[in-house]
Amino acid sequence: MSETRRRPTIRDVAAAAGVSRGTVSRVINGGHWVSPDARQAVEDAIARTGYTANHAARSLATGRSNSLAFLLTEPQHLLFSDPTFALLLRGATQALAQRSMTLVLLVADTASERANVEHYVSAGHVDGVLLISSHESDPLLVSLIEAGVPTVCTGVPLGYRAQVPTVSVDEVGSARVMTRYLMDRGHRRIALITGPDDTSGGRYRLVGFREEMGDRFDPDLVEQDVYSREAGDAAMTRLLQRAPDIDAVFAASDVMAVGAIAAARRAGLRVPEDLAVAGFDDSGLAETHEPPLTTMRQPWSEISSAMVEILIDVINGVPRTDLVLPTTLVVRGTA
Predict the structure, then answer these.
(1) Which of 74, 158, 215, 329 is the most exposed place for a label (fewest CB within 10 A)?
(2) 65-95, pLDDT tens digit by residue?
(3) Alpha helix locations (H) across 35-157?
(4) SS in 3 state form for 220-254?
(5) What is the mean pLDDT of the chain?
(6) SS3 label, residue 296
(7) Contacts of the segment 288-292: beta carbons below 8 A, 24+ positions apart
């Protein structure tokens, strides 16, 4: 019976590379003060010996968990019904896999869930938090800041922009681009369905829409609700009751836009012949909808990878500033 193969150690890598164990350790941990030749020798030795880092031992030595939290402060069902969250989750998972790190999914919508998350994070089970959604009235972000937990937000955290680095898109500018597109297509009675005012997307997409509409802005043609298909449906129904002559609708998320189209069709309207509908996000939903949805594309993979990169820098004490990424107008079949 053959013996169980012994797991290679740093000592084995050092012997194979012809360098000290300290040099191997610095290469593995991404440290400086290693010559290119020595680094290459260590990397070749790692490949030959099949060495893999013992992350449990490293965690004991460094006091770090080698994991980050993907924290969603929304109802759990939105993780599955709103494809934007799945896109961010996939991107963050891929970015961490490249660094041999683990992503922990946390959901904190209710008071009890928030308490559990606060306890888990403050106990050091993760090294930092990727905050995927934030509401101005949500106390969880305050708790993270007060506990000194490294945190990066997607979207601007209203009221706390100076305290937490963010990765976002130009909400105001993006909304202006879509609104101008609808106006240039000849639409005159343009309505807006946007998200909650205590979120950066809900608030600033309304600002951009209002700025671009100028004197033609009509507050009666604005609806604000949660980001969901049902909310978009209900908002479109209310708009048509108040203003049956609207000829275009800009919905501040794709799921809202799809709900708005369903309500318009129930009212006997054709899209885009009778009513143009535009969304925001370019989640997978926009491309597969029939007809495909005209929308503003957010760079989801870039957002995820940038959040991970910035958070790791923050954990390592490297100062980081906010990052604003561009969006793209994608014209398809609804507007």
Answers:
(1) 215
(2) 789 999 998 877 777 778 899 899 999 999 9
(3) 36-49, 55-62, 78-81, 83-97, 111-122, 140-146
(4) HHEEECCCCHHHHHHHHHHHHHHCCCCCEEEECCH
(5) 89
(6) strand
(7) 289/254, 289/258, 289/261, 289/334, 291/332, 291/333, 291/334, 292/332, 292/333, 292/334
